[in-house]
Amino acid sequence: MTPNPTQHAPKYIFVTGGVVSSLGKGIAAASLARLLVERGLSVTMMKLDPYLNVDPGTMSPFQHGEVFVTDDGAETDLDLGHYERFIDRPLTQANNITTGRIYSNVITKERRGEYLGSTVQVIPHITDEIKSAVRRVAPGNDVVVVEVGGTVGDIESLPFLEAIRQFRHDVGRENTVFVHLTLVPYIAAAGEVKTKPTQHSVRDLMEIGIQPDVLICRTERPLSEDVKRKIGLFCNVEFDAVIESPDVSTIYEIPLVFRQQGFDALVCRRLGLETPEPDLAAWTAMVRRVTHPARKVRIAVVGKYTDYADSYKSVQEALIHGGIANDVGVEIAWTSSDLFTDAATARALVAGFDGVLVPGGFGVRGVEGMIEAIHAAREGGVPFFGICLGMQVAIIEFARHVCGLDDSNSSEFAPECGNPVVALLESQQGVQEMGGTMRLGAYACRLKPGSRAAEIYGQPEISERHRHRYEVSNQYRDTLQAAGMKLAGLSPDGSLVEMIELEGHPHFVACQFHPELKSRPTRPHPLFAAFVAAAARRADAGRPSQAGA
Predict the structure, then answer these.
(1) Which of 64, 82, 507, 514 is the catalytic position?
(2) Marked catalytic residue, from 388, 403, 445, 511
(3) 115 contacts: CB under 8 Å, gap ≥ 6
């Protein structure tokens, strides 16, 4: 739905969380935002993260999950991926603010003498900086949905909570809504749900001066009207403002669950927004394709961080989107590359799947296992899709086993190797700082006419998001092409290899960029749609035995 132009002061919705972490504040916030988009409103979203890192770019995926990269090259929290997928619009650096960035900005201003000799303090200087960051994303939007990271009661998030408390006073109660997400656990021994954790969480929030307007209650079991009325009474919110958020089979069901309870209508009334009713027919049809696909495929994601699926959250969602495009359910097998210890083991493992995807990553651990997995997929005719590191490893595998360059490697993993077919980007030479210094953000790519990539995209030039330091070494281009590898995509100046593919294979495509970052449930990325389609063809054919197995 095309948003109407903003004709009023921006409205702000602040989403906080209590009791425990990982309840799904980001999904809840994005689901509400989707409903508002369907009402014709222009909506943007923002994440306030309480950690001291300036951004998550240097964090371990095991600690923080994936790093989501925006078009402007910002390394951000994975929740921004959820935001983009739900509201279907690109976000920027301004949409993710951390404690580290806020303090860095304030200290920089202090050093420049911008505070006129004042004693710089958390209140008002830090809180003012936070409020300014929120205001910066508002122009041109009807509604700004702001998720406050962390859990109420954590010391780290106190400045953010104080800032949003002040914000309501600054812009007026009629322009803000406070939403609090809590847990209502089911106690099996007692055979009932317990509301006390929610009561305590709201009490903690009220001690800071914030009275929530709406409560979202995460629960395994349905909440009776009596339980909802009890929560409303003890937490000082209206009965219809107690919203249930049950466990569902797919996150894309949450907007439908919220709509059934009138969550979006309630928020619009509170904010004085007059809008048409949302049309969720297309969204409902999309959800049905996820929950009731015509058939299924099994995809192995062979990576380094597979013990923690959030490390590949956008890949996971993009595979689901590829399934939506083909009316196929995608069963993902998170497979550690360390399991691919030799060629025979790799052939046996790969034979059980309809497709193999090797995603991004950093460091040498697990790379030899990825090479074995790609070797098995290439020789066995199993659909393969490589992303970032996945493309680089595919280059190494091809150079070793087809070009005859046995000592091929990446200079990232083996600086002294004889044939560094993957090498450090020229722009990265001499870079010392680790944070925010890679090739980041959206760059153009020109596709080779007649290539499979050009056929998949249906256009000669594309723009995709990147996050890497290493690239295919240009001195090996002729060798690779002479052996049968097609360089299907190059940077506009021809200096960087962006995509490769193999002819005569059911589907062997790899890219240096991260297409998963631009995939949407309503607009599946063409590379993922094509990969899942190839996997479905293999599944329909009965997953034939690999040649030479």
Answers:
(1) 514
(2) 388
(3) 109, 125
